[in-house]
Design brief:
- There is one protein chain.
- By secondary structure, this protein is α+β, with helices and mostly antiparallel strands.
- The protein is about 45% helix and about 15% strand.
- It is built from six helices and six strands; from the N terminus they run H-H-E-H-E-E-H-H-H-E-E-E.
- The strands form two sheets. The chain has a three-stranded mixed sheet with strand order 1-3-2, with helices on both faces. It has a three-stranded antiparallel sheet with strand order 4-5-6, with helices on one face.
- Helix 2 crosses helix 5 and helix 5 packs across helix 6.
Length: about 190
């Protein structure tokens, strides 16, 4: 009888979990809601940067359509390790943006593919237009703040108008010190 109960419980559990497992397996990669050029233009405007046609645009690669080896090669000189999977990042050397398009990743973090693209476009602008060292905390803080602003401004459905959400930009003082200035206040940039 004990063995019968165990098998019944296993079968019942398998029966109950099979729709959930099938649902997870059926989840398709997420897609961008906005054209990448639109996202870039919005980010550039937010950063008070004028895009120039002579500055090459970055390539944008999604995890579901990109070989891992390509990503690993692009990040080889930038990261001190070989990444085991494609992560959201901007490759300075190859001028390429890589994005995970795993739906569960965005569901779990309550983020979107579009706001992740906005984050990486910030790094592109920091590198190509502002000639910043992307290893500084200030660059990452600026990218995270603009990503959050983009998410709130364009992805939540409660779209606000104008520049109501926090805006940030890098400012160099007369003494050469750099700060990230945001509506919420200025923060020193290391270096």
């Amino acid at each position: 009888m004990n063995r019968f109960l165990r098998w019944s419980a296993v079968l019942a559990l398998a029966f109950c979990l099979s729709p959930a497992i099938a649902a997870v397996a059926a989840i398709q990669p997420v897609k961008l809601r906005f054209d990448p050029r639109f996202v870039l233009e919005v980010v550039a405007k937010r950063m008070h940067v004028t895009l120039r046609p002579e500055v090459p645009l970055p390539g944008v690669f999604l995890e579901s359509r990109t070989p891992l080896a390509q990503f690993q090669k692009a990040m080889a000189g930038q990261w001190p390790f070989t990444p085991p999977l494609i992560a959201n990042s901007y490759s300075i050397a190859t001028n390429e943006i890589y994005l995970s398009d795993d739906a569960l990743f965005y569901l779990r973090l309550k983020r979107t593919l579009d706001d992740s693209l906005a984050h990486e476009f910030v790094h592109y602008i920091q590198s190509k237009y502002l000639k910043e060292d992307l290893t500084t905390d200030g660059c990452e803080m600026q990218a995270a703040e603009i990503q959050q602003w983009f998410r709130e401004e364009y992805m939540t459905g409660n779209r606000v108008t104008g520049d109501a959400a926090p805006g940030c930009r890098l400012v160099q003082g007369a003494d050469g010190a750099r700060t990230v200035q945001c509506v919420t206040g200025a923060r020193p940039v290391p270096g």
